[in-house]
Request: fold
Amino acid sequence: MNELVRILDGNNFVLSDGNGDIDAGPRGACGFFEMDTRFLSQWRLTVNGERLNALAVDDPHHFEMRFFLVPGKPTHYVDATVSVIRERCIAGTGFEERLTVLNHADREVDFTVRLAADSDFSPVYSIIAKPMERPGQIYRRVEEGRLRLGYRREKFRRETVIATSEPARIDEYGLTYDIRIGPHQRWMTTLRVDGLVLRPDGEDVREHISPHRTRTAGQLRVELDRWLARAPQLTCDWEALAITYRRSLVDLAGLRFAPLALPDDPMPAAGLPWAATVTGRDSLLCSLQALHVAPELAHATLRVLGIGQGANLDDFRDEEPGKILRQFRYGELSAFEERPESPYYGSADTTPLFVILLDEYERWTGDAALVTELEEQTRAALAWIDEYGDIMGDGYLWYRSRNGASGLVNQGWKDSPDAISYRDGTLPGLPRATCELQGYAYDAKVRGARLAREFWNDPAYADRLEREAAALRQRFNRDFWIDDGEYFALALEADGRQVDALSSNIGHLLWSGIVDESRADRIVAHLLGPRLFSGWGVRTLAKGEGRYNPLGYHVGTVWPFDNSLIAWGLRRYGYAREAGILAEAMLDAAHYFDGRLPESFAGYDRDVTRFPVSYPTANSPHAVTTAAPFLLLRVLLGLQPLGDNLVIMPSLPARFGRIELLDIPGRWGRRDAIGNAHGQRASASR
Amino acid sequence: MSDAIARFFDDLGRSGRGRLEKRTSGTIRFDLVGDHGVHHWLVTITDGEIRVSRENRDADTVVRTDDAFFRRLARGEATPMSAWLRNDITTEGEFRYIVLLRRLFPPPVGARHPRSLTPGPAEPA
Reply:
């Protein structure tokens, strides 16, 4: 597949070829997308019947792009007498495109400029996963100054409206301009393309949701500037860190997405372009990683996920009361229940992570109001762990889909079908209790107890949660510990058998604090040992395991977000040097990608490839990867809220030199943190 | 209008809090289109307590559908969110009340508790 270029704002995005054209064909991924629907599958510009080639492409922001084009083959460039500037910008419910045709000849010239347009109104899922037959009808209407493309299935309707500022001959498959341009003169037209989500009465559903929000390009520019100005400022000796920090801030700005339920409270989408929607796990983890940079993301994520919390038993959606959702999709497949994302609840980790994020958020911000507002949801989440998560009734958190057709087999972050296996590669039966889920459940109970005691005035409930957490910790260290390997099993099967593969999941256990202190040394030795540590980071699955594959999505690759949580865990247990090794490896890798880490890279040993081999993935930026450098920075500087203070205990590898993170927001106002690899002195000011 | 619809709202008014959260407040008006015009039902939620009346007045969210489809919702045969995405119901107002509808209507018929499944082998990937 050719590299596609794109502009986007939340779930509204345009993916095109390098000349700005969209020519999707039946299997292509490009298009103009909104609300999980492709609104344009063709958008092809010609001048006098000739396709155009890009001399240059400029993308000043994530929502704006300019193409400088000439007709014909590259050999013709030298004597081009006409060129075209194509400026595209996301705005409102679609995008605007300004075409400027420049006549470089010293005489008047006639041109025929055509934009061919079409749409298949394909749902995003059928583009990224599998093509599906759809029974709806496509229609096309030529109107005064506009072309209207539509899709209708029962009462479900989507329309693409293409309007032009200059007169054009419009037919059902595009717009044609017959123009005459004087010597060294130019001609311009502006096209506006809107993707409409229509009700039977022909009105857009979004106009009937209050408050109704759309943003112009000007507002997007102002917001980006404000976002960058509000974030803590980083100065540091190592360029890789500076570039990565800046890149992550800009990317995170583009990932922010305003859900319909809270249009004024943007939360991070899981990834762009294909997961630009309300998600549980990725939004929770990204908000957690970025708490000291943009705490408002956690506020939005918690409120939105609280609104969407499970209320019913629903097998198709794997929903249970109190459960936090996995993903919501607005498209046709959700509407007609051909896919379960309306929303889908098939994640076993989102519910404890919700409690963990709320507690951590309050520790940073002192926002007791949100803890009060979300008391009932948080209690319901904690109750879910015991009532519905504990499928076997033995005090562990298990998962098993009740939707055999389209539910997920694995419901932790490693959700590919082969992610959870024995050493010999055998897949365990269902249900499964993966180890990191037990860590999250433990942490959720400990943190829930603090919230109950300090904010809900319910010490009895707090005591109960603490007793349960202590019992879980004890039980876990007994049942999951593999004596002959000296690490924690990846999972348990229903009969109590240990799924004995060595995996990165054990690193999350340190973050959660469920590991007995006496065992931490062994866990750290595994994490930094040759089977798990590649030199670029901790592999998802250890070398030597039956299903290990350096290019296996969840069975051998190295994931930056996974490593950021592991580094946090190492720091928690006092292994600052080891945390520093992971942080340094990650930022070293980031440098190869101009500061934008890929979702994962291959698990090859570092001394084999010398550089990190990116795994080809659909989403970039990817929220939890984008925010991983923030968490690594927190780990390096040893930032920890304590009461109303920010504790700063830097521990930096020599490579980092000096790091200054200024204006860290929190309940203390703003605080600066300065770390120096040489001398390792903590300092704080203001 | 049908007895099934009146019965649904009667039960809703008597159910107290049902599956609503204690902090929930707001008004949802249902405009149900039948053979003899549009009938209005106003659901007023105050701190999770439900009250039903036949008033036709402003509400935080207005839900419009026909009698036949409403009866399907009332029997738990249709899910409000998917119905909204399909335009089988249309709405005016705040989205969070659309999300909340599933707490007013019966859950899907025949749904199982996760513990009711017996452990088994993994389905082939």
Summary: Chain B has a mean pLDDT of 93. Residues 24 and 48 of chain B are 5 Å apart (CA to CA). Chain B touches chain A at residues 19, 21-23, 79, 81-82, 85-88, 90-96, 99, 102-103, 107-108, 110-115, 117, 119-123, 125 (CB under 8 Å). The first strand of chain B starts at residue 26 and ends at 34.
